[in-house]
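Problem 12. The chain below contains 74 residues. Write out its predicted structure in token notation.
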Amino acid sequence: MSEFELDARRMLCPMPVIKTQNKAKELQTGDILNVICTDPGALSDIPAWARINGHEFVGHDQQDDELIITIKIG
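Solution.
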């Protein structure tokens, strides 16, 4: 298991989800992906995408105007 970071700052819907999807294709089962974004809609979009595609939404953190959304690749 490895941990990766994806910078999706200053991107609006649907780009954070598309970037997350593209990065997830490169990763292995069990890897952790931290998506850093500024679009508040990503907080509902990325967990929904993860659930639909067999990944696990681990949680999120907010630091100022940035969200860090963590998913585990399924």
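Discussion. Strands lie at 3-8, 32-37, 56-63, 66-72. Students who got a different answer should revisit the alignment rule from Section 12.3.
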